[in-house]
Structures are given as C-alpha cells and as structure tokens.
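Subject: Interface between my chains keeps coming out wrong

I've been trying for a while to get a sensible model of this assembly. When I model each chain on its own everything looks fine, but I need the whole thing in one frame so I can look at the contacts. Pasting all components below, labels as-is. Any help appreciated, I'm running out of ideas.
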Amino acid sequence: MKYLFKNLIIAFLVFLAIAGSFTLFNNTTEEAEELSLSNLVEQINQENVSVITIKGDKLEIELKDSTKQEATKERETSLTESLKNYGVDSEKLKLVNLEIKGESGAAFWVGNILPFLLPLLIIGFLFWFMFRGAQKGQMKAFTFGRSKARLIDPKDKKNKIGFKDVAGLKEAKEELEEIVEFLKTPKKFIDLGAKIPKGVLLVGAPGTGKTLLARAVASEASVPFFSVSGSEFVEMFVGVGSSRVRDLFQTAKKNAPALIFIDELDAIGRQRGAGIGGGHDEREQTLNQILVEMDGFEVNTGVILISATNRPDVLDPALLRPGRFDRRITLDLPDIKDRKKILEIHSLNKPFEKDVNLKEIAERTPGFSGADLANLVNEAAILTARQNKKKISQDELRECIEKVLLGPERKSNILSKEEKEIAAYHESGHALTAALLPNADPVQKISIISRGMAAGYTLKLPLTDKHLHSRSEFIDELTVLLGGYTAEKLVFKELTTGASNDLQIATELARKLVTKYGMSEKLGPRTFGGREEMVFLGREISTEKDYSEEIASQIDKEVSKFTDNAYKTATKLITDNRKKLNQIAQVLIKKEVIERKQFEALMKKKV
Ligand code: ADP
Ligand code: MG
Ligand code: ZN
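Reply #2:
Try treating it as a single job with all components included. I did that and got this:
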C-alpha cells in the first residue's frame, strides 16, 4: 500500500506537469485579440483581412497590417456559411486567403481526448500496479517454469554432497546407489526386461538425513535434479499446486534422465478427506495431480521421483500403492558406530584438543539423530568460542549433549533453598531406584541445575543401543519414573507440580504396555486402538477405537495396575534405603551435579 500511494503521487505530479506545460503553450498564442464574428465580417468587408487560418473552431486572422487576431466560429456550420449569415460580401471574401488546418495535434488531444482518457489511464495504471504487486506476493507461481523447483545442476561443484558426506545409513545408500545406476546406465536394466522404479520414498524420523541423502543422490547420479518442498505446493491459489506438479514433471521429462525430489511429502500427501488439517481442496488437487503424473509417465522414461517424509502413517494409501513409490527406504536413527561417524564428519573443519574422544560422545548419545549430532558439535564450537578458547575439548562436547537433550542450562533460574531440597530428593529418588533395579538403565548424571523446562534431571542411558525392550525393563522404567514422586511424598509428606511430567510419561508408557505391546496378562496378546503408530514418531495421533466400552474400562484398570505396582515398588525401595536417599540428596544439594563415577562410588559407600 505504501508503494501504491507513492506511485499515485508521482502519477499526479506528472499529470500536473503536462497540464501546466500546455497552459503555458496556450498562453503564448493567446496574445492575439479575440474578435467577434460580426467584427470579423466587418473587417473582411473593409478588405483588411489577408489570411484566415481555420483550426477546428478556432480562427486565426492575419490582418493586412500583419496584426494577428483570433475568433471562434460556430461549431456545426462551415465558416463561409457562418460568415454569410453575418452578411459578408462574397466578392470580398474571395480576396481572403482561407487556410484550413486540422486542429493542431497536441492541442486537439489535450483539449478533447485527455479529459476522457486520463481517468481511464489512471484506472489502468492502478490495475497494472495492483496486479504487479499481487504477482510479487503470492502469484509468483507464474514465474520460473511455474514449478518453483530448484534445479540443482550436477556440474555445480560447490554444493556437491556425495554419499561420502552421509555417514552410516548403509542399506539406504545401497538402495539409492542402485537408483543412481538406473539413471546412469538404464540400458543395462532395460535389456534384461527389468522395470526401473518410478518412485522412491525415504521414510525416517526428523533429522535422520533424508534431505541430505537425496542431495547426495543428485550429485552422484550427475543428472538434473529438481527439488521442491511439499509445503511449497500448498499455496492459497486454487489450481496453482496442481499446475506446478504438472509443470515439474513436464520439465523433468524434457531433461530426462532426471530426478525429482519432493521433500516433506506429508504436507501434500495426507490422506484425502481425512479431515486432519481441514478438508483442503487445493491440497487434494495437488495430490491427485501427483498421482496422475506418477501413473502417466511410462516406466523407463528416465525420470525417478524421490520423496521424503517423517509421517508415512498419514500419507494417502493411494500414494503407497505399488507402481507409485515402489521403493520404500527407511532411515533409522544412527547406532553407536554411525553416531561416531556422523560426529567425525561434522568435526572435519573444527579444531579439537587432543583429549577429545568422539567414541565416548557417541556412547552417550543414543537416540540422537544425525541432525542432533551435527547440532551438538556446532554448539560445542559456539561454547568454546564464547569461552575464548581456541580448541574444542571433551568438556564442551559433554556439556552440549545435555544442552541438545534438555535445552540450555538455566543458571539464572536459581531455586530457593526449599525448592532445591525438594529437587534434590526428587532426583535422588529417580537415581536410587534406577541403581537398585536390575533392568533399569544406569545413571549417567544427576543434576539439580535447571535446564529447559526441568528443575533438575537424572540422565539414564542404556549401555548399548537397544532394538527390543522387555516387559521387565518397562516395569523397572515405570518404577524409576515414579521414583521422584515417591521420594517427594515420603520425605516431605507433600507433593509438588515438579512430578507432573514424570507422571504423564509413566501413564503413557503404562498405556502402551497394555494397548500396544500386549504386556498386560489380563487383556492378553492383542492391540487396542486403530492405526499403528510408527515407533520413531513418538507422538500419538487420534487413534480409532476398535473395542467396546467394557474393554475400555478394563484397559484403564490395567494401566492403573501397572502404575500402582510401580508406585508400590518405588515406595518399598525408597523406604528400605531411606538413609541412602538422604545421603545422595545431601551430596546433590552441596554439589548440584553428580557424575556417573561419583554416583557409583556413592552407592557403594556405607551409610
Ligand atoms: P531430514 O531427515 O529431516 O531431512 P536432514 O537431511 O535435513 O534431515 O538432516 C539435517 C542435518 O543433519 C544434515 O544437514 C546433516 O548435517 C546432519 N545429518 C543427518 N544425518 C546425517 C548423516 N547420516 N551423516 C552426516 N550428517 C547427517
Ligand atoms: Mg528434510
Ligand atoms: Zn522427575
């Protein structure tokens, strides 16, 4: 709008300038005296007039003494007729040199047409201007081949990311190497009658390297690579999304062999009519267009579509049908070996002290994604710089594990003496139960320095990466989760809000044991609730209820049984070891942080 006003003002000024110059121009000619027609006739009859120039209605009269005068004739009648009406002597009139000129160009336009044209011009200008503004905003769809896809040129050496820059993900890389080979030497496969896959779907938790891997494929295959994010398709203008898809595929086909990469496919590929995120017609049209295009291109056109998503569960089943994304590659969170490799890749250009042991960092970071690890190394570099040190040491790396895990330490958020005591007993409750239970993960660190949202925390990490979890592990885990709550209750005979997060996690876990893992003896080996949630998504979406009200109340009872039992176990453990609890809590109040080795020594110490 600001620009609109500015331009309006400019247009107005230009108009003023033009109008002004014309008035000036007119003034110079209007020095002549205005004659009435009857006067003119009189002059003619007296043979004073030498030339009359007719310009439209205007008459320029030159007298014999070469003075100039002007007159206006009647619009509708011709001059001679008018003059006759005023009684001119026709013999005398013949002596006058009559010159007829069309009204002078500019004056004619200004005089007659501009008043009508100008408003039109202004309106036209306004329309043009608004259209241009709108284009700049959301209607960019009309630009660059309409598809808005970024073309990554295989010859671009600067942004080159190869498979070597992607650590781990061995199986995924193997599958994709095959795709690369399809693109490089399609003949080899076609000769054998093999169908080259049309679509590859990369599935994995956020930060596992899906986007990274797709870019690596692009440069390895050295074919044109069209990359676009799903959310870029979702635009406000109806029809734009699907026309973009059409364009994207057309451009790719023209450049075949080529790769198309649609990142964050779930932004468009959600189940149609599911009602999640509203019944968005535009999105559905876009999705339909993708389906049409995927069916439309014949096998072996040399165009392969790669897509990435972290929500395969919400994707429209039509997308997952064979013949569309016929390859599905799952990217797992990295295991300890891969974590070390990822750390190494991201440490390449960073100066490290000699004491740095990336293996230890890898050990301490189960559950971290590639992106978390990259972030960890980066945070360590920032921390080192803030301390004005030249090289990153192990301490900074360790410190940053917790920072990435729990948010930054909040030293400023100092707990009052009473709060500190409560936090200390709460965390000691977790740590003590964890240490006493055979199937719980070992305690790595206890701290009552608040971090992120937590007042304190007890860090327990498994010694190895685990893929399967047993019932006894879960039961011990539940007990440890309730350890903080139980300790507070036993020591202070009072409860605080500090345990609410623990309770929530514990309840969710107990519910999963019953409804997902079939670990409740009473309800037996079946699941309850609709679609299976992928483990790594970690978030529950609305599940369909596929059981009766009666079962629902049984589920509730079973969930409560798990948590009640855990609470009982925690109470017994803490009551029996009350002195130990006091001991841990006292150390914690004094030191605020207890590391694993100190804690193990503390557990062995006599009370
Ligand atoms: P997403 O799966 O969410 O698309 P990205 O591919 O964007 O994840 O990964 C984010 C960042 O994490 C990458 O830019 C890279 O720095 C790092 N990263 C993730 N996985 C790996 C890996 N396997 N090797 C090296 N770096 C990785
Ligand atoms: Mg991504
Ligand atoms: Zn707790």
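Reply #3:
Confirming on my end. The chain has four domains: 2-105, 150-331, 336-406, 417-604.
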